[in-house]
Amino acid sequence: NQEVRSLAREHDDKGRRTIGVLTKADLLEEGTEKKWLPIVRNQQFALEHGYFAVRNPPQRELETSMCLDDARTSEAKFFETHTVGKTLSESMPERCGIDNLRTFLSSRQCDLIKGQVPDLLEELQDKLARTREQLGIIGKAVKPDEARSHMLELVGTMRKRIYEQIEATGADGEQQAFWHDVSACYESLAATTREAQPHFKVKGELLEHILHP
Q1: pTM to 2 decimals?
Q2: Among 33, 76, 123, 183, which lies 20 to 30 A Cα-Cα from 158?
Q3: Where are the alpha helices (DSSP H) in the chain?
Q4: Which helix (H) or strand (E) holds 52?
Q5: Could you give phi then psi for residue 30, rounded to 5 degrees?
Q6: Are 78 and 55 in contact (CB under 8 A)?
Q7: Tens place of pLDDT for every residue, the chain, 213 residues?
Q8: Do the beta carbons of residue 23 and residue 73 sit within 8 Å?
Q9: 25 and 51 Cβ atoms separated by less than 8 Å
């Protein structure tokens, strides 16, 4: 089918991921099977994973509610007795039938999964290492019955550190000198601000003297 081949080439131009499946081998006219053999043998329009030929139940069989076992039996009979099916089966028995296709697909899927395992393990190990690092930053685990006392201890430690920073009691000599200089600057600013206030007189007397005799 030219349309199918064009679509496959569009998405897999080198034929490395495509598996060819002749889904309705029983619809091939007798005498034309030899024309299909080069394709099914992967000699023409070659694909890395080759081709399979199967017989899917036609619509008339589906309408009779045919079960899977009956469908496989009908398919096996086609490849054993029908001229077209027998020619295909004798040419490449391991490539005919749903069971062979299922086995191949399962094997291929296992290979793909195995190929992804090393990268997956590396990714998981990297995430595990980063998670452990983040947990280490949080700190050691605390038992449920110790949670309250541990929280109080953390709050007390934080309170002490904040107080030391405000009062500079826990600082070293250089830091204490810095905070004392800052305090002196604030006191100097307050005094300068008071001196810069305007003088108000009430009946010739300074308001400050009236308020503070």
Answers
A1: 0.55
A2: 183
A3: 2-11, 33-40, 59-62, 68-81, 83-91, 98-138, 147-167, 173-195, 207-211
A4: strand 51-53
A5: -60, 135
A6: yes
A7: 667 778 878 888 888 888 888 888 888 888 777 788 888 888 888 888 999 999 988 788 777 877 888 888 888 998 898 888 888 888 889 999 999 999 999 999 999 899 889 999 999 999 999 998 888 887 777 788 888 888 888 889 888 887 777 766 655 666 667 777 777 888 888 888 777 766 666 566 665 554 444
A8: no
A9: no
Phi, psi of 61 (to 5 degrees): -75, -35
Amino acid identity, position 22: L
Amino acid letter at 81? T
**Residue listed under structure tokens 């590396």:** 122
Please list the residues that pair with 98 across neighbouring strands: none
Residue type (1 letter), 142: V
